[in-house]
Design goal:
Order of helices and strands: HHHHHHHHHHHHHH
Distance between the termini: 14 Å
Number of domains: 1
Helix content: 55-70%
Length: about 290
């Protein structure tokens, strides 16, 4: 096994596509539009934080970390004048249920039921200190359908991991854009993809690059130095360590069973084009 693909990372890779359909399938976008939200990005930002209430831009920018403050401020708080958090949440849950029931292969119900049980056990083992997004989603009422349960549990787990990633990056002295540049420099997602989808200007991107060069993390051609490569490795290792709660709750056999159940479903979503490859959120094909 690739030493970088720890059990925590393998579980994330296996399950993340089941969550990520919310950003690419037509049903969630249509549901947000039906609520009266004027733009796709209003649907995105309200959908990400709906369980936490009608938040203004600054706390959402802090939690989502990698987005330019100006981009978040174009959607929040104005979006809440069109739809309440409760309405956004209900519409999103129904839309992703419909997406998965449409997009997954016939006969997936038994696999989804068992996967839901395992992922909910993993969620039950999570702690939420310093993890506002995961804590908010953990309080959402469990859906009735297996597809809805899988999506909600996958969402709690990915926000739990994501909140931990933010904690690790801040602990390493990185701002949101700085963390993005280290990912791009180390061969993650191309700059044009991240820059266009996170709202950063050329001037802001260049300012971050100068900070990283001054710290010795990038060279003057924007390639990572040895120190930059090591920082990125440490950041990923810390993210995995901070995602240990769900693994402990499942145990080794439970983790392997969850991965075994999720991978064929996630690959189907990729291979049928529901989740595009490559994509602007960096989700791999498991």
């Amino acid at each position: 096994m690739d030493p970088q693909r720890t059990p925590a990372r393998r579980l994330w890779e296996a399950v993340e596509p089941l969550h990520a359909v919310v950003y690419f399938a037509p049903e969630p976008a249509e549901a947000a539009k039906a609520l009266g939200l004027p733009s796709w990005w209003m649907g995105y930002f309200t959908g990400r934080v709906a369980p936490l209430g009608p938040l203004d831009a600054p706390p959402v920018t802090a939690m989502l970390f990698g987005f330019a403050p100006s981009m978040v401020a174009r959607s929040l708080p104005d979006a809440w004048a069109y739809a309440s958090p409760d309405a956004v949440l209900a519409a999103r849950l129904d839309a992703v249920r419909a997406t998965l029931e449409r997009a997954l292969p016939p006969g997936s119900e038994g696999r989804l039921e068992r996967l839901a049980e395992l992922l909910e056990r993993a969620v039950a083992g999570c702690r939420y200190d310093g993890r506002p997004l995961a804590a908010g989603w953990s309080g959402v009422r469990r859906p009735a359908s297996a597809a809805g349960r899988v999506w909600l549990a996958a969402t709690v787990l990915r926000e739990h991991r994501g909140d931990g990633h933010v904690l690790a990056a801040v602990g390493a002295g990185l701002r949101g854009l700085d963390a993005t540049l280290t990912l791009v420099a180390n061969g993650g997602v191309p700059q044009e993809t991240f820059q266009a989808n996170r709202g950063w200007t050329e001037a802001e991107w260049e300012e971050s690059r100068h900070r990283l060069v001054a710290r010795g993390l990038l060279d003057r051609t924007s390639r990572p130095t040895r120190a930059g490569e090591e920082l990125r490795r440490q950041l990923e290792d810390a993210t995995d360590r901070l995602a240990a709660d769900p693994l402990a709750a499942l145990g080794e056999s439970g983790v392997e069973e969850a991965i075994g159940l999720a991978v064929p479903l996630s690959r189907h979503l990729v291979d049928t084009g529901v989740l595009p490859m490559p994509n602007p959120i960096g989700v791999p094909r498991p």
